Task: inverse folding
């Protein structure tokens, strides 16, 4: 009898344990992480008409060099992306991008965005693995990813690109001048507090964007930021550095050619529900970038310095029933001066001629850029934006070397590009 009671007790305990285990397993399965993915995309383009054209085809915007009265329908950017949550600690991002390819305003395939027949050719813009909280507050990102120059990394929101918010209209000024905004490398993105008011983004990369590495030098990026007044005020400081040509033998008294670049950039922004304003300024110093051919038949290298300042404002005019923007406006002004010490190069009596090694930093042309327009949102993530772009150019050294020497204050040759556009921008899957 006692044996039967003991057996019955053990059986009941086992059954109860199995039931509790099953309930716990079911509860765990409900709370356990489930991998998932999101397909998304974006596109922007315009109908554009060039109402004014600089006769010397100067500038670095997509319409530089395009003829007067040219008009075109065009997609300027098409994205197809996929984000996959692998686990609680790992995510993967992949992005295909088709981008119009302009080299000083002339369609070409020099940057790989277009096929030989000038058709769009999508390329891999992102392909990276994010290890979340590799240590407290910091993510490690490996692969091809946005650089600290523009941010937009899913962790921090502090750069001019994010606050300007109108990349569909124009790149930020560092992007226009060729600073890599995406690159292959390793990045640490983190917060210094619990709420993201203070943070950083450090990266080492090839400096070749989507192209394979072609030298032994790496591009170093660093970005730190602080947010105040409930994150309305943003202060962001960026620094980068890369060797370009190091110890290359050059005939002449200067010996080997040492050629590098470094950019220091400051962004300050103020965000409210009704209005956003921002200022960004950079100084880019490129050591040994100006190649001077002397009358003594020697080659000399001189350092160039470029300064750019950008101001923008955008805001709400009308809102819809849900309190979201229905109609807005935007305005931006950039002032770019790459002349640095070019005046001393021109005034040197030994100078026969000179060229710059970095094509995006031609020291002989100052530029002013303005863009303004209206943003109409008929639905969420759909923007219709009538706008115009104005670029003015001024030569920094006059018509000839003799002119510059005789008239040190000469402003040189002036020119203007004017483009009217109707821009369409939409996002889906987000």
Result:
């Amino acid at each position: 009898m006692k044996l039967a009671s003991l057996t019955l007790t053990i059986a009941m305990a086992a059954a109860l344990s199995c039931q509790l285990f099953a309930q716990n397993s079911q509860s765990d399965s409900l709370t356990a992480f489930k991998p998932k993915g999101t397909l998304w995309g974006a596109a922007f383009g315009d109908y554009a008409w060039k109402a004014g054209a600089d006769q010397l085809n100067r500038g670095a915007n997509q319409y530089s060099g395009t003829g007067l009265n040219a008009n075109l329908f065009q997609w300027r950017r098409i994205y197809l992306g996929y984000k996959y949550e692998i686990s609680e600690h790992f995510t993967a991002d992949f992005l295909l991008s088709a981008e119009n390819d302009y080299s000083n305003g002339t369609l070409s395939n020099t940057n790989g965005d277009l096929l030989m027949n000038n058709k769009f050719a999508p390329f891999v813009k992102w392909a990276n693995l994010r290890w979340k909280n590799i240590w407290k507050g910091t993510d490690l990102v490996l692969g091809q990813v946005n650089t600290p120059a523009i941010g937009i990394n899913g962790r921090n929101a502090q750069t001019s690109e994010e606050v300007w918010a109108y990349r569909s209209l124009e790149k930020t000024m560092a992007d226009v001048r060729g600073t890599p905004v995406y690159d292959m490398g390793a990045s640490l993105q983190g917060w210094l507090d619990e709420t993201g008011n203070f943070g950083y983004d450090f990266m080492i990369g090839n400096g070749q964007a989507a192209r394979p590495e072609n030298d032994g030098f790496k591009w170093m990026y660093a970005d730190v930021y602080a947010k105040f007044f409930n994150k309305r005020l943003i202060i962001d400081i960026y620094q980068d550095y890369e060797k370009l040509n190091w110890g290359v033998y050059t005939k002449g008294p200067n010996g080997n050619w040492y050629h590098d670049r470094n950019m220091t950039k400051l962004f300050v922004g103020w965000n409210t529900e009704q209005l956003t304003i921002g200022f960004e300024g950079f100084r880019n110093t490129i050591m040994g970038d100006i190649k001077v051919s002397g009358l003594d038949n020697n080659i000399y290298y001189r350092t160039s310095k470029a300064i750019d300042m950008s101001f923008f404002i955008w805001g709400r005019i009308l809102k819809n029933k849900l309190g979201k923007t229905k109609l807005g406006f935007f305005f931006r002004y950039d002032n770019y001066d790459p002349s640095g010490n070019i005046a001393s190069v021109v005034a040197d009596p030994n100078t026969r001629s000179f060229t710059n090694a970095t094509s995006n930093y031609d020291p002989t042309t100052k530029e002013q850029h303005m863009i303004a327009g209206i943003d109409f949102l008929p639905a969420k993530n759909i923007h219709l934006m009538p706008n115009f772009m104005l670029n003015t150019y001024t030569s920094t050294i006059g018509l000839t070397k003799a002119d510059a020497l005789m008239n040190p204050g000469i402003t040189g040759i002036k020119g203007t590009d004017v483009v009217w556009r109707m821009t369409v921008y939409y996002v889906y899957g987000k």
